[in-house]
Amino acid sequence: MINKKSFYIICTISLALYAYLLFRYYSFSLLYDDSLFFNQGINYYSIVEFSPHFPGYPTFIIFLKFVNLFFNDSFFTLHFINIISIIASILISSFILIYYTMNYTFALFMVISLLFSSLILFCALSMLSDSFGMAFFLLSYYLILKKKFKSAGLVLSFAFFARPSYFILIVFLLFFYRNKKFLMFFIFTSFLILLLLFFKEGSSYFSEASRFLKGHFFIWGKGIYQDILDTISWQSIFFNKVGILKVFLFFIPLVFLYKKELSWLFICYFVWIVFFQNPNSIRHLLPLYFLGHILFFIFINKLKYKKIQAIFIFLLFFSSNIYKEDFKSNKSALTKAMEYLPKDSIVISNYGIYILKSKGFVVLDKYYLYSVKSYIKNNSNKKIFSLSTKEKSFFKNFKKIKVFKKRVYFEKDIYLFQLIN
Amino acid sequence: MKTLVIFLFNLILITSVSAYSYSAAGSEPILETREKVLKALENKDYTKAKFYIDEIIVDIAYLSTKSKQPLLSDFKDAFFKKDEKKVFQTLNLLLASEVHKRFDEAELSLEHYQKTKVTLVKIKKYLDLLLPFYDKKNKQKIESLYNQARVSIGNPGLFGVNSIPFNKFEFVKNKEELIKVVYKFDK
Question: CB within 8 A of A226, min separation 6: which ones?
Answer without folding.
Answer: B16, B17, B18
